[in-house]
Sequence to fold (372 residues):
Amino acid sequence: MTDNTALWILSKRSPFAIGPAPMPEAQAHEVVIRTRSIAVNPFDRLIQTAGDIMTPFLTYPAIVGTDVAGEVIAVGADVTRFKIGDRVLGFAAGTDKTRNRASEGAFQAYVVLLDHMTSPMPEALSFEDAAVLPLGLSTAASALFQRDYLALNAPSLEAAPTGKTLLVWGGSTSVGMNAIQLAVAAGYDVVATASPRNFDLLKRLGATEIFDYRSLSIVADMIAALRGRQMAGAIAIGAGSARPCIDILGQCEGNRFVAMATPPVSFDEVPAGRGHWRKLVPTIAGMMVGTTSLALRARRNKVTTKMIWGSTLIANEVGPMIFDAFLPAALAEGRYVTAPKAEVVGHGLDAIPAALEQQRRGVSATKLVVTL
Ligand SMILES: NC(=O)c1ccc[n+]([C@@H]2O[C@H](COP(=O)([O-])OP(=O)(O)OC[C@H]3O[C@@H](n4cnc5c(N)ncnc54)[C@H](OP(=O)(O)O)[C@@H]3O)[C@@H](O)[C@H]2O)c1
Fold:
């Protein structure tokens, strides 16, 4: 009998703890994988500090984590796309409201993945590189392709140019690099923002013009650059990204819709333990003020805004559109690359808390990865 081990959160706001976990079994539309690489995301650490408002539904003990790559060791009765031994990457959905299952959290040696949120990996792709994709890709796809968001054409290997332009604010984030590649693969021109050190990288991913988001004249510069273009909308990623996107789209032709990945206030300074409520309460108040202020600004500019939840594609046609119809062939043909670049920062589940802390201190065009 094989043993499973997990990095648990035993109760609400408690620290991570390594311990034994049940060996998962694959239900009809699931696979079980032996985890080889895990990438960490801001969301993974925010569950301990802002879970009261972000994931109040989550049952404990919980196993979190979304980005995983490994080998299939079991397939459910209705799975036809995978067999035992396949190398795959997948979106571990345990913290999604519709799943809420510890067996589907990425931070463990054996993880349950939904068949339609899993993709085969090309031979040449390493587990480390593959693990950078799932949440960044899913969040970008939820914003770009869901019908109640930007509703862009589906990505494909033969997309016809649409003549429309997408604004990606925060193009060098994990979400942003996937948004750029997906939009280009769907036939859209992409204008993005990043620090100048990442301009060339974003051009290689397909963005045509890139602006420094720290420039004081960026809103005026982007409005001038976008004059005469038909907009497909915007995806706003990173602190303070929604406001300039509203101001820019308010002066543009086309779809005035901003899909927002980042809330108007940061929860990074809220501790899980001592002082939790003292920091959380003013942060929630700031969130309400920030949200109201953005809503008023959007209304003045005749722009629609909507927050993204990066796992909603699980429950609609966008999940299979990405992980089945598009990504496997696009990766195999080199038409989609794993981005941002992976930086392996440790081995073993006990390396994850330090990786999350390093992520909190900030990265540039890099995804932190732990191997198992
Ligand atoms: N709503 C959801 O479901 C969801 C899901 C995933 C992520 N998110 C959110 O999306 C954001 C990005 O997450 P991620 O994991 O993709 O980030 P990440 O890869 O860790 O982002 C790192 C990048 O952020 C850029 N950056 C820093 N400050 C910025 C700012 N003020 N505006 C624009 N870009 C900035 C930096 O760009 P330069 O180095 O070029 O300066 C850096 O390359 C976070 O706020 C995260 O919480 C939301």
About this structure: DSSP finds ten helices and 16 strands in the chain. The chain has a mean pLDDT of 96. Residues 276-300 form the longest helix (25 residues). The longest strand covers residues 30-39.
